[in-house]
């Protein structure tokens, strides 16, 4: 019972009416914000990674340009052939290597091997230059002799086979820029140059591209070697993520993809000496952090709004249901016979008006009961007298039968026929057991009535009854047609001697509607009266209570009322004039709904 109360339903309705839109709004806002933030973040990171790629490319280009000094210095290639015998040539080579070292920030050491003289030279910032004779360059440079320029992946720094000095730095992460020195325009190799570059400059560029706390950045070469990483333990290792490797090996120069609960943005550096790829990994928790915060704020607002709605609904429901409970209590006491209940409720809102009207209604009922009780006592005697003076209708019916038999015995069959018609009309009218009859029975009753009227008016009256066969068995209320036909003799029959005409027809319309049309050629209804009569019928058909008088057509009112009782206000009655003169009455009886209900029962 609690769940069926107005209070429970009101709370349920308010919760549903607010919770569903709020949840939909929060979901849609979260999805839309999430997608918007994703697009904005991707766009911002693409620009950021592109800028980082540009800076790294410029840095490598500067190293490359610095290494090209071996060709721009006209004495360098000649000095390579003179060392180690010519000390001046050796000093000039040392000077050039030191100039390269000082030109570019972050150079750890430079190694040079002259092929013809077999002289290897090492220049570092912390020690004096070292040199020694070697038949071949240091082993780490040999794989790159076949390239003009190449970049060795990040590795731990070393002294290229020279004895380490106390001031030299080792075990530092560097990448090496290799250049093979040839005797241009021939391809004869004169020497190999290896420039070790610390990751300081690369790290300085990369650290501007990501947040170390919740993001990750990788610089990977074409073979999957990690040049730089935000995690030191990954530097110099092979990349193990197959999905990342697959995207690196594609022909795309830039792009983004989602994998492992994170968004990845990548940009490729394509230079003549290396192909690095910058990859930034942004976890979804970081990417959608603002969307999550906004959703949490909206959820908090929604919870507060729901609490306000619940308390507000409880307050309003109490204000609504408390008067109803009080009124129900008064009704229970009245139902038990206590009609003098003291109805007490003082409020200026609608509930106060309702209690005031209920109090007035009970006063009126009490007064009516008292008056009706007195009238009942006063009318008992009158009713007894009326019963004693009442004529038994069966006596009249039997008397008419006896007179008809006497007329037949005296060879007056016409009188017998008329009396028989009158007796059948009386029997039809007196039989109160049948509230519903078929159209065939109703039409037969009207035919008998018209036969009597034709006897009265002779040749001045003609009538016809044309009923479609499928309409004959349709049920309808009793005594519907006779009052409508009777109106013709009361109001429409031409008394100037002209022949009167009355036609009755029926047909079935769609949706189980029985239409009966009664037409006559009598006097037409004046326009004002017809307008007023039509207005009254329309009001009654729409359920509005109308006050009818004899002048308005009380017979029409009674017919329409019984039709509406039978078909639950689905039937209708229309009246209009026809040309050149006459009146048409159309009756529409909706039988389909009624038959469906009866069959269901």
TrEMBL record:
How does the entry describe its membrane topology?
Multi-pass membrane protein
Write out the transmembrane intervals: 297-318
Report the Pfam families cross-referenced here.
dCache_1, HAMP, HATPase_c, His_kinase
Record's subcellular location? Cell membrane
Q: Which domain of life is it from?
A: Bacteria
Q: Which UniProt keywords apply?
A: ATP-binding, Cell membrane, Kinase, Membrane, Nucleotide-binding, Phosphoprotein, Transferase, Transmembrane, Transmembrane helix, Two-component regulatory system
**HAMP domain location, by residue?**
318-370
SMART domains, A to Z: HAMP (SM00304)
What is the designated name of this protein?
Answer: Sensor histidine kinase
């Amino acid at each position: 019972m609690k769940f069926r109360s107005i209070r429970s339903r009101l709370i349920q309705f308010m919760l549903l009416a607010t919770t569903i839109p709020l949840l939909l709004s929060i979901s849609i806002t979260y999805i839309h914000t999430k997608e918007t933030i994703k697009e904005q973040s991707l766009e911002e990171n693409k620009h950021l990674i592109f800028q980082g790629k540009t800076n790294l490319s410029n840095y490598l280009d500067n190293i490359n340009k610095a290494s090209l000094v071996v060709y721009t210095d006209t004495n360098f290639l000649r000095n390579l052939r003179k060392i180690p015998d010519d000390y001046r040539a050796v000093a000039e080579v040392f000077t050039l290597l030191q100039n390269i070292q000082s030109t570019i920030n972050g150079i750890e050491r430079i190694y040079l091997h002259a092929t013809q003289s077999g002289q290897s030279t090492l220049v570092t910032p912390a020690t004096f230059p070292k040199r020694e004779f070697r038949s071949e360059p240091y082993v780490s440079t040999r794989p790159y002799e076949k390239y003009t320029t190449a970049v060795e992946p990040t590795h731990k720094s070393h002294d290229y086979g020279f004895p380490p000095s106390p001031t030299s730095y080792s075990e530092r992460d560097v990448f090496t820029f290799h250049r093979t020195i040839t005797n241009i325009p021939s391809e004869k190799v004169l020497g190999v140059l290896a420039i070790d570059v610390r990751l300081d400059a690369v790290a300085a560029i990369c650290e501007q591209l990501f947040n170390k706390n919740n993001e990750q950045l990788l610089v990977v070469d074409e073979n999957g070697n990690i040049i730089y990483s935000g995690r030191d333990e990954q530097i110099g290792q092979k990349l193990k993520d197959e999905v990342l490797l697959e995207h690196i090996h594609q022909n795309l120069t830039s792009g983004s993809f989602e994998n492992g609960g994170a968004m990845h943005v990548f940009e490729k550096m394509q230079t003549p000496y290396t192909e690095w790829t910058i990859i930034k990994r942004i976890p979804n928790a970081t990417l959608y952090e603002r969307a999550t915060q906004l959703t949490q704020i909206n959820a908090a607002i929604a919870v507060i709004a729901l609490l306000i709605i619940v308390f507000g609904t409880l307050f309003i429901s109490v204000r609504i249901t408390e008067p109803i409970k009080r009124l129900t209590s008064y009704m229970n006491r009245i139902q038990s016979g206590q009609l003098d209940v003291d109805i007490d409720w003082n409020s200026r809102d609608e509930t106060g008006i309702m209690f005031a009207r209920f109090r007035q209604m009970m006063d009126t009922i009490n007064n009516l009961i008292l008056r009706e009780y007195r009238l009942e006592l006063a009318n008992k005697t009158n009713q007894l007298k009326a019963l004693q003076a009442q004529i038994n209708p069966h006596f009249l019916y039997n008397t008419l039968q006896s007179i008809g038999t006497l007329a037949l015995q005296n060879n007056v069959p016409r009188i017998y026929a008329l009396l028989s018609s009158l007796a059948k009309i009386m029997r039809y009218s007196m039989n109160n057991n049948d509230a519903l009859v078929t159209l065939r029975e109703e039409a037969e009753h009207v035919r008998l009535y018209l036969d009597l009227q034709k006897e009265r008016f002779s040749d001045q009256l003609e009538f016809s009854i044309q009923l479609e066969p499928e309409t004959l068995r349709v049920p309808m209320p009793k005594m519907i047609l006779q009052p409508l036909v009777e109106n013709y003799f009361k109001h429409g029959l031409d008394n100037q001697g002209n022949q009167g005409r009355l036609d009755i027809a029926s047909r079935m319309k769609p949706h189980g509607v029985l239409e009966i049309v009664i037409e006559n050629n009598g006097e037409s209804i004046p326009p004002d009266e017809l307008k007023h009569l039509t207005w009254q019928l329309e009001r009654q058909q729409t359920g509005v209570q109308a006050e009818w008088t004899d002048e308005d057509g009380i017979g029409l009112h009674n017919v329409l009322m019984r039709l509406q009782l039978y078909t639950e206000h689905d039937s209708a009655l229309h009246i209009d004039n026809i040309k050149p003169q006459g009146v048409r009455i159309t009756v529409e009886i909706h039988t389909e709904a009624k038959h469906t209900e009866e069959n269901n029962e």
